[in-house]
Amino acid sequence: MVNSKKEYLHKIIDYANRNKKLAIYGAGNVGVALYRDLKDLGIKVQCFLVTSLIGQRTEIDGISVLQIEQLSDVDELGIIIGVSLGKISGIRKKLVQCGMTNYITLNQEYIDTILNEFNAPKMEITTVIGCSVNCKYCPQKLLTAQYWRQDKNRVREMSLQAFQGCLNKLPSDTQIYFAGMSEAFLNKACIDMIRYAIKKGYRVGVYTTCVGLSLSDCKQLINMPLESLILHVPDEHDYAHIPMSDEYWSVVEMLLNATKEDGTYFVDSCSCQGIPLKKFMELNRGRIRVESYLHDRAGNLESQDENLESCDYVNGPIYCYHSGDRLDHNILLPDGTVLLCCMDYGMRHPIGNLIENTYEEIMEGKVLNDIRKALKDETKELLCRKCTYAIKCRRD
To answer: Could you give the CA distance from residue 281 to residue 226 in angstroms, rounded to a whole number?
Structure first.
């Protein structure tokens, strides 16, 4: 373990020494990395805790993964919440519901050593406006209304030429994610966009429901060196309106069975807007973790649904969990418009246009600099202050 990690773990080590038994709440990237770091330090973890076992592994490195309600012996048990900061509030509520108050959270600096991809610029590509999947927990109506509010003729699909022109303006270390605010493969040129981005040397990830992904394109996709692929899977409630044709299931099965050159699964993880569909779980056979984390998109989903994580207005100086005050995790729309982030379905914060401007003009321009100033000034109206990823700056 690198020294910088150990420095950030002093509080955790002290906490572990004060509790006879230890559990980690969280079985994802952060929780598993924390477990390994504690193991290197000779600190024993009794179990992993999760809110729901649906889609979870039953054990990690021989350590049981338990649903929080299954935990019976809590005497002298200390709990470390090992998740990204945006998910902590929901877990705290769950612990309170279960009558557990002996827990501790990780600090941002330590999490940054685990999720180091947050340190690089990121551009999410919205290849098309108007997503037919129209998930229950996605503000599609808000996005489409705002996108065409002033110009009914605004381009709906991104052309390959437009994508190439925009991509060529981005820094070489930018992560390119085909996710954005709609299903990327609804644009038939998507597979060619992915191929071009990889050819240009960019780190490329894909988040997909597989709607629009043909079997022939899927065969090409599994042979591409993607940095990550996250599969959005159908649910028992039909919250995600995924047409499940024979070809769809063939594509899903091909992705689940595919492996990378190092032998690991091609699909890195799965997400679901409810209980994963039984047929999908049978195909998955417990191989790939399925996660369900739902939030109100910084208040853009007007719902009292208890399944949604929401955030009270955050006062004082703040920064973004994903991009600090750099604010360089952005969204590219089909006409070149760049939005502040993946929460901005209401298009409150367009920061430039990558067809008309250089990347440097956008990132160093007045609009984004004013937003950076607003992070420190709670009197300025800002989408970030209702976001679950807004982090309050520490007072030195």
So the answer is: 24
CA dist 170 and 279 (Å) reads: 41
Which amino acid belongs to residue 361?
A: E
Per-residue confidence band for 75, with pLDDT thresholds at 50, 70 and 90 = confident
Coil, strand, or helix at residue 285? Answer: coil
DSSP-derived secondary structure for 297-360? TTTTS----TTSB--PPPPSSEEETTTBTT--EEEE-TTSEEES-TT-TT---EEEETTTS-HH
Strands 63-67 and 269-272: unpaired
Distances (CA, A) of 337 to 12, 155, 158, 228, 331: 43, 11, 11, 25, 8
Whole-number pLDDT of residue 268: 92
Please tell me what DSSP assigns to residue 375: T
Q: Tens digits of per-residue pLDDT, 300-320?
A: 987 777 777 788 888 999 989
* H-helix segments, 132-221: 140-147, 160-167, 190-199, 215-221
**Beta pairing class for 59-60 and 63-67:** antiparallel
Q: What is the pTM of this model?
A: 0.82
Percentage of residues of the chain with pLDDT beyond 70: 96
User: Residue 123's closest CA among 168, 85, 80?
Assistant: 168
CA quadruple 297, 303, 308, 313: dihedral sign: positive
Angle at 338 between CA 334 and CA 343, to 5 degrees: 100
Q: Does residue 136 carry a pLDDT above 70? A: yes
| Residue 115, CB-side half-sphere exposure with 13 Å CA sphere | 18
Q: How far is residue 204's CA from residue 226's CA, in Å, rounded to a whole number?
A: 5
